[in-house]
């Protein structure tokens, strides 16, 4: 069956002498892999359309139960010139598609997830600063679309709103449950990893237990709330700073590991942190 779908190129690798195997995330089929015969020839009809971080219109010969589909045509819709021309912006874009590739399975369509990745890349292309925010926002929103949306508005125990907890400086984020507990409701039950003390009402911000409970500052929770809910076009205006950025990154990594057991470190994101620091 010949079919067409819009897609984003996630990964491209050489195959034999002149072809490529390409992984896409498509609007209709979710993640899909295809072979582009002759794609590496000098006068290939595919041009640059098979490079990662390209938004394309894809035509393929699709057969059910076949691992590799045959790519007939692939035309560029967007090239994301700004993303490709700046190293720190490029690292964020690559981090987004690397995470998406890890978290999705072949041929499980999800229109909301496709829309999220395209909008994230569009806003990253337009942003003027704070590029790393777009990866953090994508990480949180991607988990939410896949069924793991955290509840950040209020304490799960007493129902007090996040704004009412500001005077307490910190709260406990239960990464396994995606919920927060204020200091009044938190009862320490687990020993810290170093075995030195228990995580109680005076525990240090950013120290977590073996059960995935982490005490974080209210500032982190409010930033996570904005990364999750604010319009994507406003994410670039959020100045997290180095300390807050590090705390948010650590909290999100723990949260993602709790819910996606096979998740590997995002190499592009780690490269970005080494190049520019967490306030990029």
What's the arrangement of secondary structure elements?
Elements: E1 2-15, E2 19-26, E3 30-36, E4 55-61, E5 69-78, H1 81-85, H2 87-103, H3 111-126, H4 132-145, E6 170-174, E7 179-181, E8 213-217, H5 218-229, H6 241-259, H7 267-276
Parallel strand pairs: 3-5
Antiparallel strand pairs: 1-2, 1-4, 2-3, 4-5, 6-7, 6-8
Helix pairs in contact: 2-3, 2-4, 2-7, 3-4, 4-6, 5-6
Give a verbal description of the structure.
The chain is α+β, with helices and mostly antiparallel strands and 280 residues long. Among the domains are: 1-79, OB fold (Dihydrolipoamide Acetyltransferase, E2P), CATH 2.40.50; 162-222, no CATH class. Helices cover 33% and strands 21% of the residues. It contains seven helices and eight strands, in the order βββββααααβββααα. The strands form two sheets. The chain has a five-stranded mixed beta barrel with strand order 1-2-3-5-4. A hairpin with a 4-residue loop joins strand 6 and strand 7. Mean pLDDT is 87; it is low at 190-210.
